[in-house]
Amino acid sequence: MEIAIGPIHSAMLEPHRLRLVVEDEIIKDAEITIGVNYRGIELIMEGLPPEKISILSEKICGICSHIHVWTNVMVVEKGCDIEVPERAEYIRIIVEELERLHSHTLLFGHIYEVLGFETMAYRAFMVREPILKILQEITGGRVQYSCPIIGGVRPRCNIQENKIPSILERLEKFEEDLKKLLKRTFNDPMILARIKEVGYLDKETAKKFHATGPTARGSGIRSDMRKLLKVSLYDRFEFDEVLFDEGDVYARLAVRFYECFESLKIIRQALKDLPNLDKKIYNPNYELKPFDPIDVYNEAQRGQVYYSYGLDENLRVKHVKVRTPTATNLACMEAILPGHNVSDAELIIVSCDPCFTCTDRMIVIKESSP
Question: Which one of 1.20.120.450, 1.10.15.40, 1.10.645.10, 3.40.50.300 gives the CATH number of domain 38-320?
């Protein structure tokens, strides 16, 4: 018997089609189809000036918009040898870690919703709300912030010293609420019955399908670009890469919970150092120059983000490539679905925190009509 779920379903935040071949409620084969939300952003970027593709890169994903525009401008800064002020790098990191907090907490709410715990889902969104307000206070936006620009950050994103105590106070409250949410989640036998030993992803399968981010770290694989490549100034901060070996839905959820506490560590250290840094947040004295495609990696909430492009002799963007973490993580989830109960299918997919919007940004080349 075949069961088709989607592309629109109440358990889905974004459109995709899940095809399940089942026998007595047990999945025998699975196929995930994407492409419903296709936009072809990389193709649109070709031939544009680098400043304009920053605007487009932010629209690739609503939940991780900052990491996209930040990684995008890093390509130009690396290719044109543009020096970024220290304070601007700190602000970029602070906004990214705040974005990681709001993204992970959003996933908690989504998982509770899929499990049927509506009250817990609402509670997760209440816990998340102070982070969105801090982001709005710093950048002017709750979801898309337009913070990084080539050579620094926008003037409105400069964090004033008199705002820091208020931010730290709200982060303290967020941490307290998050600890309560974690305790409530991992001490609830009904939740544990649905997430422990469900959706097991072993290391070999994770490596085979190139799992990344918390999905990989839930299977004990080191993958944090902040640690492996020392992105930006992350090597100045003390924080741990969270690893679990269980490889199930429980582990992938636990990684994200404990990563939130690591993000709080980073933010607090950055805010403590911020008053002692130079006030400059933007370097206007840069000059664009042609360069061949350059690769840049960063660590988004869901895993590794990759940007690559160059500038031609007219200083227009060429050979754009963007890779987001969901595509490979979805391949892992598709591989491990067989053998599970039908009722666990959407939960397993959600456990890798998929973003179909950023996955469907890719170029699709079709043969021309005869």
Answer: 1.10.645.10
